[in-house]
Known about the structure:
Blueprint: H1 2-38, H2 46-57, H3 70-106, E1 118-121, H4 125-137, E2 143-147, E3 159-163, H5 169-174, E4 182-185, H6 189-194, H7 199-220, E5 225-230, E6 246-249, H8 250-263, H9 267-275, E7 281-286, H10 295-304, E8 308-312, E9 332-337, H11 338-348
Parallel strand pairs: 1-2, 1-4, 2-3, 4-5, 5-6
Antiparallel strand pairs: 7-9, 8-9
Amino acid sequence: MRIKVKKIIYYLIKLRGKIFIPFAILYILVAAYIAFSIEPQTFESYLTSVYWVLTTLATVGFGDYAPVTDLGKAFTIGLYITGIGLVSLFIGKIIKSVYLIEKRKVGGKMKYTGKNHIILIGWSEKSKSAIQEIFKSDETIDIVIIDNLEKSPMMEERLFYVRGDATDEETLLRANLSKAKGVIIFADQITQDNYTKDPLLVDGKTLLVATAITSIEEKTNTAIHVTAEVINQKHIRLFERVKVDEFIPTQEMISHAAVRSLFSHGVTHMYSELMSSKYEETMYEISKQDEWRTYRDAFMDLLNKGATLVADRGDLNINQKLDARIPDDAQLFIICNKETISKINSKIH
Length: 349
């Protein structure tokens, strides 16, 4: 019996929350109708009586309209007693709703509804650096972080947080994956900390996330650019069946840079300059122009504009085939500063 009573009380509490706003609107409309019925000469129209009820409940009281009959004044007293309490509850309800929305947002429980955003999977210092890099590169783009932290690791205006397991399709859908500009999968930090002797476990988690993304791509018939951090370069072959576009072989890059620094002193400074936006010169992608028939045409034209052509996709041997024709689907990369790329892009468009 007690359980039934508790269920009824709980149901009434939930029902009160659902019907409160409709009840408040109905209260205002009925009160305005009564006021208009009591004093039709004072309130020239029903809309005027609605206006008077709202100003009365809000305790504004402009004084442009006021009841003149005893019945009208008695009704106004009743309106003060009941209405002001209603307004207080209404304001409290709004404040509570805003608090709950903010709490859900910080806790990562809300669905992201924007588009053309970047999704970062996995929180670490690398993720933090990536966020700073993205914000420097694009002042308008949104970033969605997916992780299992209790609350958002950072509070920024264009930063959103979705809490959950990134291998779960439901979590990826809450991040609006199908409308995303791209995804970066960072190697799971917890797995790295606990299983540093077995990179297969770390890359295995990344592979599961990439598989879940591929599944959503196939279901929604969309293509999403995915970049994945791979701890061991040998494991890249395991990703052949999933649609990962680019890989970041972390350990191999660090080892290669460290070794080259011994044979070519200062080479790490060059790597740092290319990989960080704090330096003026960095790498940009540029479209092929109609007047460029060969790589030499593009190389010389760009050089005159203050930029250096360095690669076509992953091909860095441009200088060895300058007289070769540039294919229509070429993806050219140049090194220059931000001012130069802005001038080049402005002339292109």
